[in-house]
Write a structure and sequence with these properties.
- This protein is α/β, with parallel strands linked by helices and 248 residues long.
- The protein has 9 helices and 12 strands.
- The protein has 2 domains: 162 residues, P-loop containing nucleotide triphosphate hydrolases (Rossmann fold); 78 residues, no CATH class.
- Strand 7 and strand 8 form a beta hairpin.
- The mean pLDDT is 93.
Length: 248
């Protein structure tokens, strides 16, 4: 698969990767090596120049973002302000962003705010989203609570594939631990999970397999139980490990 960045230059180059149900595959790499474009391609936010992306055998490269979402795909983006929330909208409206057009949230194009607000209160309690209620603007929540609100929205839809970018960047220790546990719980329920993170401890702790990306291609795939930060760093810098250490 090849995916161009904004200047028309390939950011993802001949990349091939499979993700299995019941596993977390971590994507490790230095920022700017194609991770963002890869996730955007999988979620329909960026066109694929060549190659294909399939979910359960069905190609998605000509589908819209909503069509991909409807294929049971959840996306927790790296920039929650730009792509994850509408900060001027209420927390309840943000939690309903992926489902507002469906019953019981709406009928005949008319939103049912009683249902939307009640669902938001339920999820805020379940996911420990702390704030002055579901009717405040999303931008009034702290960063950690914004992230938990986005995760609540995506996990509540029960997606079969969950794509998570930089899940704990800029968060406090308590929020980090909680969010990691929720993502791992999805894996334990048999979901396929992709985690993109610059935090190597996070990648090593959460992943069942680690794919290292360098210059838009997979440099190696490692078992976290048999690797370390040094090996990851070598691959992230474009180096090579022996065949016993990295499978490409």
């Amino acid at each position: 698969m090849v995916v161009n960045e904004n200047r028309g230059i390939p950011a993802v180059k001949n990349l091939s990767l499979d993700v299995r149900a019941g596993e977390i595959i971590g994507i490790a790499g230095i920022d700017g090596n194609g991770q963002t474009e890869l996730v955007q391609a999988i979620t329909g936010l960026r066109k694929v120049k060549s190659g294909d992306i399939t979910i359960k055998g069905e190609s998605i490269i000509h589908k819209t973002t909503r069509q991909i979402t409807e294929m049971s795909v959840g996306h927790i983006p790296e920039d929650r302000h730009r792509d994850g929330m509408v900060l001027e909208m209420t927390v309840a409206e943000n939690i309903a962003l992926q489902t507002y057009y469906k019953e019981p949230n709406s009928k005949n194009g008319i939103l049912n705010y009683n249902v939307i607000n009640a669902k938001a209160r339920e999820l805020m309690k379940e996911f420990d989203v702390r704030g002055a209620g579901e009717l405040i603007a999303g931008g009034e929540l702290s960063g950690g609570n914004q992230q938990k609100a986005v995760i609540a929205r995506e996990i509540d839809r029960d997606p079969e594939l969950l794509i998570v970018s930089q899940p704990t960047r800029g968060l406090d220790v308590g929020a980090i631990e909680y969010i990691r546990k929720r993502i791992i719980a999805e894996r334990d329920k048999g979901k396929a999970v992709i985690v993109v993170s610059f935090e190597l401890d996070e990648i090593l702790d959460m992943s069942d397999r680690i794919a290292v990306i360098y210059d838009g291609a997979i440099q190696g795939i490692l078992d976290p139980a048999e690797t370390n930060k040094q090996d990851l760093g070598i691959l992230m810098a474009g180096g090579q490990l022996n065949k016993e250490e990295a499978n490409v």
